[in-house]
What does this fold into?
Amino acid sequence: MQPDEWQAVRFTLAACAGSTLLIAPFGLAIAWLLARPRWLGKSFVETIVTLPLVMPPVATGLILLKLLGRRGSLGGWLHRAFDFDIVFTWRAVVIAAAVMSFPLLVRSSRVGFQEVNRRYEQMARTLGAGEWRVFWTISLPLASRAIYGGVLLAFARAVGEFGATILLAGNIPGETQTLSLRIYEAVQLGHDATAYRLLLVCVCIAFAAVFSAEWLLRKKEVR
It folds into this structure.
């Protein structure tokens, strides 16, 4: 593989790891809330969380571009107040991957929290444990396999992200060019050998992540 190809692979792995770390605390919090009995606004939150799964990635990218660009409400304020830009930087790659992979983390983690035996939580509360301690010592450990599976699925989805990324971050070699964008560029230029090499790398990464996630979920079912 050529140096620019390795650079795209390394950047993709780093950006996807960063996006997964970014969404983890928020995803777990929302998954835990959605696993609770019905509360006001739950259906609305569920719908918002699921939207990136069903909307075209390009449409999601356009929404992010309008929000985070220099003419957007948030992006414009960041640029004026702090001279801080998001669009067409590595930060845009991380954010696009985070938004697109967020639903997978939430959905998998939510299933894990829902399958926690409520009697254990009630017993802990009866013994004087507060909600925070119940979460860290009962709910989170018992749901850990589903959470780990969700993290791996989110990472795999981030690796394959294309539509939102190309709108929000562009395809700048050495700056925002991910593995998917490098494959797209190679196909456009007729560099089939490069495209197939990178395709193999992409398949290996995705296969390893999904296989590990399924293994964790199967182990959970056996237990």
In short: Residues 37 and 112 are 15 Å apart (CA to CA). The radius of gyration is 20 Å.
